């Protein structure tokens, strides 16, 4: 039911509540959809030092700068023991917080060790591959503007390396005979 005054039409309180709920729900759905979208990989990253222990300090270096629209970044780690969506290891931080390489890449020191991150996640055995993902974003919008990923491999519970211990996978060569 609506009520008409001299120059405007007012809707009833229940109708206003319903309309407000619909607007809020559609807005929330839009935010959920936007943050759930997969980001474009815009480059790679590397873990330093190349080898270390579970108690070593680690830094990540991206291959280039974040896209121009980005003002901030976050970093998460995924792998055995961590939540499927990853564990946040660097909170939402301005890009200006970090140093850069001559190529414009970011140098992001982690404030804790892999042992600390494992303890926070509630497990004790570090094993296999872990991926750090640097997500470029803006301060107040969680939508990724581009990602960089850096892998490490734990070859024991306490030792890691930033190269695959299985080695690179070779491209199969052709075994077809050549004609002369």
Written account of the structure:
The protein is α+β, with helices and mostly antiparallel strands. The protein has a domain of 123 residues: Immunoglobulin-like (Sandwich). The chain is built from two helices and twelve strands; from the N terminus they run E-E-H-E-E-E-E-E-E-E-H-E-E-E. Strands 3, 4, 5, 6, 7, 8, 9, 10, 11 and 12 form a ten-stranded mixed β-sheet that branches. Strand 11 and strand 12 form a beta hairpin. The longest helix is centred in the N-terminal third of the chain and has 24 residues. The N and C termini lie far apart (91 Å). About 13% of the residues have low confidence.
Q: Can I get a quick summary?
A:
The chain is an alpha+beta fold and 180 residues long. The chain contains 2 helices and 12 strands. The relative contact order is 0.20.
Shape: globular
Instruction: Measure the end-to-end span.
Output: 91 Å
The structural class is alpha+beta
Average pLDDT works out at 83
Contiguous uncertain segments of 5+ residues: 15-37
Q: Please state the second-level CATH architecture of the domain at 39-161.
A: Sandwich
Order of helices and strands: EEHEEEEEEEHEEE
Radius of gyration, in Å, reads 24 Å
Using the coordinates shown, work out and report the CATH topology of the domain at 39-161: Immunoglobulin-like
Largest sheet features: 10 strands, mixed
Q: How many DSSP H or I helices?
A: 2
CATH class of the domain at 39-161: Mainly Beta
Number of β-strand runs: 12
Strand content: 35-45%
Name the helicity range.
10-25%
């Amino acid at each position: 039911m609506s009520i008409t005054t001299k120059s405007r039409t007012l809707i009833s309180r229940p109708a206003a509540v319903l309309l407000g709920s619909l607007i809020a729900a559609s807005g929330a759905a839009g935010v959920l959809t936007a943050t759930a979208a997969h980001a474009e990989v815009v480059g790679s990253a590397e873990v330093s030092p190349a080898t270390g222990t579970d108690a070593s300090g680690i830094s990540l270096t991206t291959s280039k700068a974040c896209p121009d629209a980005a003002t901030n970044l976050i970093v998460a780690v995924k792998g055995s023991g961590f939540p499927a969506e990853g564990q946040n290891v660097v909170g939402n931080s301005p890009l200006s917080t970090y140093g850069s390489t001559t190529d414009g890449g970011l140098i992001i020191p982690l404030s804790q060790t892999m042992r600390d991150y494992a303890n926070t996640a509630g497990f004790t055995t570090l094993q296999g591959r872990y991926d750090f993902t640097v997500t470029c974003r803006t301060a107040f919008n969680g939508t990724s503007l581009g990602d960089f990923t850096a892998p490490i491999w734990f070859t024991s519970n306490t030792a890691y390396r930033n190269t695959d211990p299985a080695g690179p996978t070779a491209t199969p060569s052709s075994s077809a005979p050549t004609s002369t």
